[in-house]
Amino acid sequence: MKSIRDFFQNWIVGFFTFIPYYCRHAIKCYLSPSFYRFEGAKALIVSGMIHKRGRYAQLFVNASLILVVTVGVTVGPSLIVDDGRVQVNLSGGGGSKIVFAASEEETAKVLGEEGTQMNMEMSTQYSDKPRAEIYNYIIEEGDTLSSIAAKFGVSVDTLRWANPEKIKSEKDKIKPGDNLNVPPVSGVVHTVKSGETIYSIAKKYDVDAQTIVDFPFNSFTNDETFALAIGQELIVPDGVMPDIIPWSPSTGLAKVLTPNAGAVSATGSWIWPAAGSISQGYKSWHRAIDIANRGGGSILAADSGVIIVAGWPDNAGYGNRVMIDHGNGYKTLYGHMSRISVQVGQTVKKGDKIGDMGTTGRSTGVHLHFEVRTGGGFLNPLDVLR
């Protein structure tokens, strides 16, 4: 028994002694030459580059650039998708929309108008958002004063007053190729003279001074006193030239029509701010309701309060807007207005007119964007309206 145990012990010891020896022998016989050859080739290359003092560096750089350009030309086109779509303007009763169509024969599908074949044509887009500067428009064949005014959303009288040397009477004809100055909004462009203030200018053009202050691109040498610099150009929204009979009725951005209501307090009950149908309800990404009415109409204060915003102060998507602080923890916002009939600081009673429905700002049709805000955020207007 002891002899058998000794035999296996000797065999195991011999086995584990032989294996390392065999591995070392195999590495020495078979792998070492390969390593030696690799190291020899590397040493040869390195010594050659050192001997040439970097002469091959430019070769490697040029080869790399050629490789990159070749790959870009070969693979690049496959990464660009050109489906032949064109941007077109669709004009309809609901306002202008921008869609993409693969061809003129493709049926354009717009929200609320799926399956309807549209008449598509390429046209230049002019934003409803006021511009900061006077636009120099080159008259095209077929243009009229009315069509140009409609294209830029201003009145014919605005064009007339901005181009007194070219347009003196209604019989004057405009010629293709001529230039017309187009103000950013309906009204007057006034060059400030010595001694003038926003109050004297507002009185001259029959507007409220707040109208001039609220236009977002009017600047002042002193933002607290609204001081003006001699020679600067001032946009007077809805201004009317004195002693001149207008050719068209005023479109009005912000004339004060509703008188101050005096001391008021919120009633706690709400009325609908406008007539129309709800085109969009309250959602997590749209914390308001939209009341649409193609014919426009008056916008009323949903409850009594103080006007804290009246105009387009930040050039944002709300467009012309009014905000009312009702003094009981609630505030309401009325957006996309075409005309504002109140000014900051005055009070209104529930049901007083504060302006007219429109499509200024980020809007695709005539409607009222109505928000109810509280200290904790937004409230669904349908929870309070009756």
Notes on the structure:
By secondary structure, this protein is of the alpha+beta class. Among the domains are: 31 residues; 103 residues, Membrane-bound Lytic Murein Transglycosylase D, Chain A (Roll), CATH 3.10.350; 107 residues, Glucose Permease (Domain IIA) (Distorted Sandwich). The chain is 26% helix and 21% strand. The protein has six helices and 17 strands. The strands form five sheets. Strands 7, 8, 10, 11, 12, 14, 16 and 17 form an eight-stranded antiparallel β-sheet that branches. The protein has a three-stranded antiparallel β-sheet with strand order 9-15-13, with no helix packed on it. β16 and β17 form a beta hairpin.
Summarize the structure.
With 386 residues, this protein is of the alpha+beta class.
CATH topology of the domain at 277-383: Glucose Permease (Domain IIA)
Q: Tell me the overall shape.
A: elongated
What is the helical fraction, as a range of percent? 25-40%
Say how many strands there are: 17
What is the straight-line distance between the termini? 107 Å
The biggest sheet, with number of strands, parallel, antiparallel or mixed sense and barrel status, is: 8 strands, antiparallel
Beta-strand level of the residues, as a percent range?
A: 15-25%
Query: Based on helices, strands and strand pairing, what is the structural class?
Result: alpha+beta
Relevant CATH superfamily of the domain at 277-383: Glucose Permease (Domain IIA)
Order of helices and strands: HHEEEHHEEHHEEEEEEEEEEEE
State the helix count. Answer: 6
Radius of gyration: 38 Å
CATH second-level architecture of the domain at 277-383: Distorted Sandwich
Point out poorly predicted stretches.
Answer: 81-128, 249-254
